[in-house]
Amino acid sequence: MMDFIRDYGLILILFILPVIFVIQPLFLPMIAKKNIQVDVTSLKRKKLLIYRQIKELEMEFDIGNINEQDFSSGRADLKREVSEVIAQLNSL
Amino acid sequence: MNSNKKFFLMIIGIIGVVIFWIGWVSMNPADEKAMATFVSVDELLEDNITHRTKLGGLVKDGSIVISETNHLDCSFVLKEGDLELNIKYDRTRPDLFKDGAEVIVTGQYVNGVFYADELQTKCASRYEGDLRDENSYNLSEIDS
Amino acid sequence: MTPIAGSVAMNLAFGFSILTVLTLILYTRNGDQRLFLTGQRLALGISFFVFLATFILAYQLIQSNFDIDYVARYTSIETPFVYKITALWAGQSGSLLFWLFILSIYATIVILQNQGKHNSLMPWVIITLAIIQMFFLVLTNYVTNPFKPTDADFIVANGNGLNPLLQNVTMAIHPPTLYLGYVGFSVPFGFAISAMINRDTSPLWIQSIRRWALVAWLFLSIGIILGGWWAYRELGWGGYWAWDPVENASFMPWLTATAFVHSIIIQEKKDMLRVWNMVLIIITFTLCIFGTFLTRSGVMSSVHSFTGSSLGPIFLTFVFLIMIVSFGMMYFRRNVLKSPRKMESFTSRESGFLFNNMVFVVMCFAVFWGTLFPVFSEAVRGTKITVGPPFFNQINIPIGLILLALTGIGPLLAWRKTGKKSLIRNFTFPIITGLIVSIILLLIGFRGAVVMSFSLGAFVTATIVTEFARGIRARQKKLNESIVMSLVRMVSKNRSRYGGYVVHLGIVLMFVGFTGHAFDEEKEFSLKVGESDHVAGYNFELIKLSEAERPNHYAWISDLRVTKIDGEFVTNLHPEKRIYFHKNPDPNRRQPHSELDIHNTLNKDIYSIFSGVDSENGVAFIKIMINPLVEWVWLGGYILIFGTMIALWPRKDQ
After folding, report:
1. How does B34-66 read in b/e, with b if 16+ C-beta sit within 10 Å?
2. What are residue C259's DSSP bridge partners?
3. Contact with chain A for residue C209, Cβ under 8 A
4. Nearest residue to C269 (alpha-carbon basis) of B105, A59, A52
5. DSSP-derived secondary structure letter, C387
6. Residue C571: DSSP 8-state
7. Do B71 and C526 touch (CB under 8 A)?
């Protein structure tokens, strides 16, 4: 009998605690969507990504894997992209 | 021709070549041991199949005979239902090969004897016995 | 705690998985953040209950509670502590729960790591993972429950015990590593599905799963290599790869995953191959589930397969559902999957990647074809034809060699287009290296695939060396650093690139090892004490044959003295013949095992198996195999792991 109570007691606790944990947010006041926040992080990541691509492009050029013309046009493209991203970031 | 089309054709070409290659090897394997047909003892005996085959069955109790002169030479009887088949095998035998073991043999059937060059025992890495056998003994009995 | 708690936990996890899916779908409809929070917590709840169930099963195993069928089947009182825990994944139902356990670890990490990040992607990622969890929970709850009580009308005094073959360290690590790989691809798959639903297929989602894919790939690689290592050291047939259906089942997703980790680089950098990447991750994940299915279906007879299983149809249904839903979704999202950029030239890095991808997928198809050949042939011609290693080798050797060649060619191509001048400059040194090696080999007398493999290996090594050298030189010219400094900074600034090259080097070494297989020799003979026999220029003399009784087995121990034909001493080998459960009164339940002994050097392994004993006449049956270059496979494996670690090592800004 004791075993029974102990086991089922434990199960009850292990069941009730998660349930409280789970439904707790439903009693919070309405939260506004944080879309702006999201955009900032993803834009920042995008910026970082493009910076890295520029670095890599420069390295490829230094090694000699790309010719002068491709390098300058590629870098110009990337710089244009990154300035767009920065402009978007500034506008927020 | 634009570059997209060129790439498309190239990819189709590669796929074509490889499918041809796979088909070709499937039709004409270089090694005669590359393929074996899974048959039942019944089919083997009835159709007298002489190309490379694979058979499954049980080792008949007490049928394992090991040659006196060369201990690698071994013959046994494979049972599948009521049917029996003499097997000869002259390579290292797997650890689990014994009376009653479930085995798969691969080889050729020539004049009433199946010459196997592969012998696999089932259940090499998984061990799932029948618990009811445990009834017959327990630990203390064995240790004494 | 009693096993009932385990069942309850699994049921609760199942309930939570349904609620998670419902709540989050509701959230994607109305956008109420509270629902998202609840959904996230419900998803954490699934994992919590799965952890709980797993720990309860582990506890039962440790406690040797033989009232549970699973515990009685896979452990016994004598089973050492460690192997009581590893018994968690020794059998069907336990291994499914363990699969779920690992998926739950991953799911928890994904949820905790991405809180506040990827707010549009995350709901569908969590839903996808919860659905996968739900599927496995259906299995462990209602199809093969690990907490099923022992079905016996007597009290089980002792369990079956774990197969001695599985009682070693490698076997304790191999399945979990493989599972970590298999299951790991659920996360990129979840992100892929989510990206499609959100119509956001830009390179950003690729960014967030690159590391996941690489981690899963690493585990899968380690798992496969460990499996080979275990087979080589324990199973005693002298090889590490048998093209067994279950081995193939792990190799197929590895191939497509390798293609995937290459092609995501293109999408990340160039935003090309969107469709292709989707296809690859869907296939990889499907193959992972399919692999889990193959081991359990009973469709394939294999040394690895679990016996008597009813899971086949359920798994197949799930596999088809995944494919239909994923590819259906791709069809409906075909507009957003169009890549904005196109390939420009055959001699570009992009097309190099594309071709390497093609070859990987083609090889996967070849392996798939061979693995399911019995099924196909039975369907088409009515006879079940099985194919063996010679078939797989014949098909895959040329494909493998093409892959090896591409490993060298790819990195030397420039993005967009490689000009004629740089083509000549980049390829001169590697091609000359390859040619010199092939000429030398031809002069020595080697022919065919062996020459190809070694020369291509030399070619690839030369390209890797050139890449490093040119990178270092470029830095030195610009920054005036020392060579070592340049190397360190260069690698740490471009981890995935140079880590990748190191992985390539590992692959080259492994190919060298595979090629050694062409020179294998073996001989079986019987010896009495004092007698000797020879193979491949080595002489084997049986010095002594002794017997010993050890705690869990009985052993015959041979003492073989190995000398070269001219008498020079090489080593002593002590292969053993063991009988496990030797005290069992029923001889059929005793389990013989050949414990082999290997003398390994970089050049060749001398592999000895004590295959049988005639104790009345004092005769030992010995099988000797001379396996050249096997050590290189493991060496290549270490380098592969090292390279992947470099690529994975986090940067400060991440």
Report:
1. bbbbbbebeebeeeeeeebbbbbbebbeeebee
2. none
3. no
4. A52
5. E
6. E
7. yes
Q: What is the ipTM of this complex?
A: 0.81
Q: What does DSSP say about strands C604-614 and B102-110: parallel, antiparallel, or unpaired?
A: unpaired
User: Residue C225 in contact with residue C634, Cβ under 8 Å?
Assistant: yes
- State the amino acid at position B144 in one-letter form: S
Which of C269, C422, C494 minimises the CB distance to A64?
A: C422
Sheet with C521-528, strands from edge to edge, namely: C521-528, C619-628, C604-614, C597-600
A89 to chain C nearest CA, in Å? 17
Name B78's Cβ contacts closer than 8 Å, sequence gap at least 6. B41, B55, B57, B58, B59, B60, B84, B85, B86, B87, B103, B105, B114
* Total residue length of chain A: 92
Q: Is the dihedral of CA C492, C495, C500, C501 positive or negative?
A: negative
> Could you read off the pLDDT of C418-456 as tens digits, one per residue?
777 778 888 899 999 999 999 999 999 888 889 999 999
> Which residues partner with B22 through β-bridges?
none
Q: Where are the domains of chain A?
A: 2-91
Could you tell me which of C523, C446, C499, C445 has the C-alpha nearest to residue C640? C499
Q: Report d(CA A65, CA A63) in Å as an integer.
A: 6
Backbone angles phi, psi at C558, to 5 degrees: -100, 150
* CB-CB under 8 Å, C38 with A26: yes
Q: Which of C465, C460, C459, C449 lies closest to C514 in space, CA to CA?
A: C449
| pLDDT of A13 higher than 70 | yes
- Interchain pair A56, C42: CB under 8 A: no
C513-522 pLDDT, tens digit per residue, is 999 999 999 9
For helices C483-493 and C495-516, what crossing angle results, to 10°? 100
Stretch (H or E) spanning C64: none
Q: Residues C575, C622: contact at Cβ < 8 Å?
A: yes
Lowest mean pLDDT across A70-84, B125-139, C14-28, C379-393: B125-139
| Cβ–Cβ contact C275 with B under 8 A | no
Q: Beta strands C538-550 and C521-528: pairing type?
A: unpaired
Span of A40-44, B134-138, C94-98, C124-128 with lowest mean pLDDT: B134-138
Whole-angstrom CA distances from C219 to C48, C171, C173, C176 are 24, 15, 11, 9
With contact defined as beta carbons under 8 Å apart, do C374 and B36 qualify? no
The residue extents of the domains of chain C are 1-167, 175-388, 419-493, 519-631
Separation CA B36–CA B53 (nearest Å): 5
CB C311 within 8 A of CB C178: no
The two tokens of residue C408 are 């060298």
In angstroms, the CA B127 to CA B134 distance is: 15
**Burial tier of A28 (Cβ tally within 10 Å: 0-12, 13-18, 19+):** exposed
